[in-house]
Amino acid sequence: MALVHRARADRPAALVARRVRLDHPDGLDPAWNPRFPELAFAADGVSLLMPYAEPYFVRTIRSVLPELEPGLRDTAAAFCAQEARHHAEHRRFNDRLAAGRPAVARLERWMARTYGWLERRCSTRFSLAFAAASETIAFSIARWADRHHHEMFDDVDPTTATLFEWHLAEEVEHKSVAFDVHAALDPSRSRHVVAAATTFSVLAWFTVLTTFTLLFGSGRWRSAGCWLRLPRWALGIAFVTLPDLVSSLLPGHHPSHLADPPGLVAALRAMDAESPHREPPHPEA
Ligand SMILES: [Fe+2]
Ligand SMILES: [Fe+2]
């Protein structure tokens, strides 16, 4: 019960599903970051996972909505609406990536089998812990991306940059929701630990695999700079993600204790000011 009360006290005031629809060009280059193509390849790996990971989280959280108290139920429904839009936009982006690249399509089939297996074989409580830990990782990646905004987005096509920036910013905005749902329904810390290790491993494995697939498929593996920078990016992300993930497993932790990345918060405010894309949260979105 104490967990439920903690979650209620720290919940954000409101979440909205933003109307975002991006038109990516045919023949999208997976190396869409001209300065650091290997960084684009790693982001492509994360993008490829989204249409399999996020629907799993959405179905899991929707399945427990009736068990939640009304305030958290509404917030969780709005969270699901945001995630549904994320993976729909990544689906359209990924279709461009996979066109004419059978290796990418093969990776996607493997991702689909992996998340399908997790959803079929794991309990709802484990899936909730998996979603909560995955959201912690998403928030950590957002913090890293905010600090490396110039490397990530300078000279990048604005449509591609918007996809990743919008998604990361909403990950910041709803950073507490999956954690609160998990905390409200499952006191098992050991399940949370196993779920965190599992989601980190799956995410890291597929991101590395996609990066290498695209590096070798594009011939960019011949660039010495890529091999010098890749370990630096990987270690930098690990040094942000792993401490956040470990601290999320400790007693007394709540995502609201973590400082939001200011650049992404400002980007979301700017999006809201510029576009009439705000909609009231809808449980069935
Ligand atoms: Fe998302
Ligand atoms: Fe999320």
Overview in brief:
This protein is mainly alpha-helical and 285 residues long.
Largest sheet, order of strands side by side? 1-2
- pLDDT under 50 segments (min length 5)? 1-10, 280-285
- Return the CATH architecture: Orthogonal Bundle
Number of domains: 1
Number of helices: 11
The SSE order reads: HEHHHHHHHHHHE
Mean pLDDT: 91
- Rounded to the nearest angstrom, the distance between the terminal CA atoms is 30 Å
State which percent range the strand residues make up: under 5%
Number of DSSP strands? Answer: 2
CATH topology: Ribonucleotide Reductase, subunit A
General shape: globular
Helix content: over 70%
Ligands (ions, cofactors included):
fe (ii) ion
Q: What top-tier CATH class fits best?
A: Mainly Alpha
The structure class reads: mainly alpha
Outline the secondary-structure elements.
Layout: H1 2-10, E1 17-18, H2 37-63, H3 70-98, H4 102-121, H5 124-147, H6 149-153, H7 158-173, H8 177-185, H9 189-218, H10 224-248, H11 262-274, E2 278-279
Antiparallel strand pairs: 1-2
Helix pairs in contact: 1-8, 2-3, 2-4, 2-5, 2-9, 3-7, 3-8, 4-9, 5-7, 5-8, 5-9, 5-10, 7-11
